[in-house]
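We emphasize that the prediction below concerns an isolated chain of 275 residues; any contacts that depend on oligomerization or on bound cofactors are therefore not represented. The input was used exactly as deposited, without trimming of termini.
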Amino acid sequence: PLDRLLQPYGDSSPMGLLWTFMGAAPAYVIFTGLAELAAGLLIACRRTTLLGALLATGVMVNVVMLNLCYDVPVKLLSTHLLGLSLFLIVPDLKRLADFFILNRPTHPAPSAPLFGAHVWLNRAAMAGAAIFIGYNVYTLVDEVRADGIRAAKSPLYGIWHVDDVPRPQLLTDRERWRRLVFDHPWATTVQLMDGERVRWLVEIDESQGLIKLRFPNQPQRQAQLNFERPNADRLIVRGVYEGRRIIATMSREEAATFVLSSRGFHWINEYPFNR
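Result of the prediction step, given as a token string:
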């Protein structure tokens, strides 16, 4: 999210740091996601179960280590999935040892139809499996589109820097705003002068020019602000916030001005770009 660009490394949690460095490289996220999807599809077919289990084991070892080392709260689930992958490999351990370690010839694993000589039952089972796999792939892709590629953005999307408020710009001032960040349609972040970020749930009514703020898990803590947009890069906010009246004129900051967002991909690096 945009407000991560404003957060010092040292203030982030281990999980927050993991999510940030993963999100900073969408191509790597896609690569790891496709590896997990491929493992699941291969496991779903009997002839490729071993290949899928081997791929899943390689993928899940990395996932488990990330969860353990970066304090992600799905340690047991990921370890369980790794254990299931290893369980599927166990019947072929001897064949794998013969091939990879002992340099011995291996024989094909026995493969018999699921329902023996009942052709129509075997075909029905294959059709059912194809429908099941197709449905799951469709729902996964649809979820990625809804929450990732086509995820909705706030109508005030952007990082808004406060240019003018009727009080001095002191870094020790914990009441003066420094930035206002809109990313998702349901959340916003207020950054104070000392760098602290206060996250709110938000409802934006563009027709009425209203911003309604509600603090998570504290329904009595609310605020309602009026806003105007003289142009696409200017925002004026007025109202009562945390018991005091505010008025702030803001300008949009481009996320591309941050090195993490603007560095991009380079085939050749003559010198390390390490900051």
